[in-house]
């Protein structure tokens, strides 16, 4: 009877250890709702295909139709601009007008409601092509890592597993000691 109880206890501990180690894996599929407002939605700004938050500034210069001026403020010389408006299904000259200015800035005028909606929903991507001493890179380096960032959960899982295994060993030792007496 005691051997059967020991086997059952060991099986329960083993299942518990595996359950603890897999709980954090299920959190990756959870999509938490987040509040967003029109002021939180911004276009994606890139320099040579790499997202930036500091090297490109934009200002709304007119309201009707909405006109946005993009200026590159980083180092290097702007050689051109790219945007994803055609990819979004918009037609140049009909839905929007994009003009590269003599000073190296880019002005986009959103004419139709579809174009304005794309802008206001943060779907627009603007990419400044910049020459850094003769080196222009127009392709972004993709993140090919299949590893998720460390969250500290693995440390707590290991600690919990070790504590659980230690408790199981202590219970088995106490049971055997009591039986020997």
In short:
The chain is of the alpha+beta class and 181 residues long. It is 32% helix and 24% strand.
Give an account of the 3D structure:
It is a single chain. It is rod-shaped, with a radius of gyration of 29 Å. It has helices at residues 2-23, 113-120, 153-180; strands spanning 44-47, 50-51, 56-62, 66-72, 77-83, 96-100, 106-110, 125-131. It is an alpha+beta fold and 181 residues long. It contains 3 helices and 8 strands. The chain is 32% helix and 24% strand. It starts with a helix and ends with a helix. The mean pLDDT is 79. The strands form 2 sheets. A 4-stranded mixed beta sheet has the order 2-1-8-5, with no helix packed on it. A 4-stranded antiparallel beta sheet has the order 3-4-7-6. Strand 1 (44-47) and strand 2 (50-51) form a beta hairpin.
Number of strands: 8
Helical residues, percent: 25-40%
Which percent range describes the beta-strand content? Answer: 15-25%
Task: Please tell me how large the radius of gyration is.
Answer: 29 Å
Question: How would you summarize the topology of this molecule?
Answer:
Layout: H1 2-23, E1 44-47, E2 50-51, E3 56-62, E4 66-72, E5 77-83, E6 96-100, E7 106-110, H2 113-120, E8 125-131, H3 153-180
Parallel strand pairs: 1-8
Antiparallel strand pairs: 1-2, 3-4, 4-7, 5-8, 6-7
Give structural attributes.
four-stranded mixed β-sheet; four-stranded antiparallel β-sheet; alpha+beta; 181 residues
């Amino acid at each position: 009877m005691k051997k059967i109880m020991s086997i059952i206890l060991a099986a329960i501990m083993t299942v518990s250890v595996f359950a603890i180690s897999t709980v954090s894996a299920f959190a990756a599929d959870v999509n938490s709702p987040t509040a967003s407002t029109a002021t939180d939605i911004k276009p994606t700004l890139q320099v040579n295909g790499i997202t930036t938050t500091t090297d490109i500034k934009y200002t709304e210069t007119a309201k009707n139709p909405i006109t946005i001026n993009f200026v590159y403020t980083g180092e290097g010389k702007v050689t051109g601009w790219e945007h994803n408006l055609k990819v979004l299904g918009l037609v140049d000259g009909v839905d929007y007008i994009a003009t590269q200015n003599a000073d190296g800035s880019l002005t986009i005028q959103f004419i139709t409601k579809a174009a304005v909606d794309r802008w206001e929903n943060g779907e627009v991507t603007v990419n400044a092509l910049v020459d850094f001493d003769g080196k222009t890179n127009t392709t972004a380096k993709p993140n090919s890592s299949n590893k998720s960032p460390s969250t500290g959960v693995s440390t707590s899982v290991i600690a919990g597993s070790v504590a659980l295994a230690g408790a199981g060993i202590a219970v088995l030792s106490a049971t055997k000691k009591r039986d020997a007496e």
